[in-house]
């Protein structure tokens, strides 16, 4: 399942960063998800919770930021978000909202990154 492998990668990234920084605990993780990934944020969050059991990530607050699709049109040079299309918002293969051509490049919307991680250290110098 899509969400499971992403959740696994996110947990590993977060734990890895925390270990390198000698953290005792991760308190908060912010994740960016592009609209084009079609990931279900609730499901992703749930799986991160499950996978973070017995790791430094356990109990951390998981924040998810959705990144809307942005595109550039090679026909008319339109640049920006895709047009609203209530009919097929599950088919994000988009056309240019300005000229209707399909010669577009997606510049945003494929992200699935750990954006920020907040950690707690025990022996922090004041
Ligand atoms: Zn166009």
Features:
about 130 residues; alpha+beta; hypothetical protein PF0899 fold; Rubrerythrin, domain 2; 2 helices; about 30% strand; elongated
Structural commentary:
There is one protein chain. By secondary structure, this protein is α+β, with helices and mostly antiparallel strands. The chain folds into two domains: 1-68 and 109-126, hypothetical protein PF0899 fold (2-Layer Sandwich); 69-108, Single Sheet (Rubrerythrin, domain 2), CATH 2.20.28. The chain is 24% helix and 30% strand. It contains two helices and six strands. The strands form two sheets. It has a three-stranded mixed sheet with strand order 2-1-6, covered by helices on one side. It has a three-stranded antiparallel sheet with strand order 4-3-5, with no helix packed on it. A hairpin with a 5-residue loop joins strand 3 (70-73) and strand 4 (79-81). The structure holds zinc ion. Zinc ion is lined by residues 73, 75-76, 78, 96, 98-99, 101. Residues 73, 75-76, 78, 96, 98-99, 101 line the site of zinc ion.
